[in-house]
Amino acid sequence: MENMEQKYENKVLKWALVIGIVIVFNLLVNYALSLVYKAPESPYTNQEQVVSNFDTKEDCLAVGGQWSENRDVPAPKMTAPVTPANAGWCDPYFTKNKDYQAAQKVYDRNVFIILVVIGALSLVFSAFLPLEVLTLGFSWGGVLSLIIASMRYWSEADNLVKVLILAAALGALVWVAIKKFKDK
Hints:
By secondary structure, this protein is mostly helical. The chain folds into 2 domains: about 20-25 and about 95-180; about 55-95, no CATH class. The chain is about 65% helix and about 5% strand. It has a two-stranded antiparallel sheet with strand order 1-2. It is elongated, with a radius of gyration of 26 Å.
């Protein structure tokens, strides 16, 4: 009876270690990546406490803003009300926001590539580990890294990139399966 109980405890411990490796591996990769490769800074991060009103089209465009002359479209609550004197409203962060979105898109793509490479390397690395618990931990850690990478970039990727992502992930999984289980 004690032998059966010990097998159960070993199985629980093994899966606790596997889950721990999966989680800590991905936390380590993502936090290390955030230290090494900084995300673009939002234009809204360092806003001044007192925001200027841009009452004319020229003032608005001079700061890279977007001027709206349409009186039928309500101005956002943070802008000055549309009056005959100003005949419109300004989004002073228009250009900065466009630049930020473009930089964020490049950043997300690069992070995706890095996480896919690390996930694939983890899968390959796991095939050479002598202990089952390490093999399981790093292979599932690699799979989770692929999932995280895909979730971060999936909406931005075009269909060809999505097919390549899925083909690469499937190829890595098949390779690991053949490497680990061909003789069993």
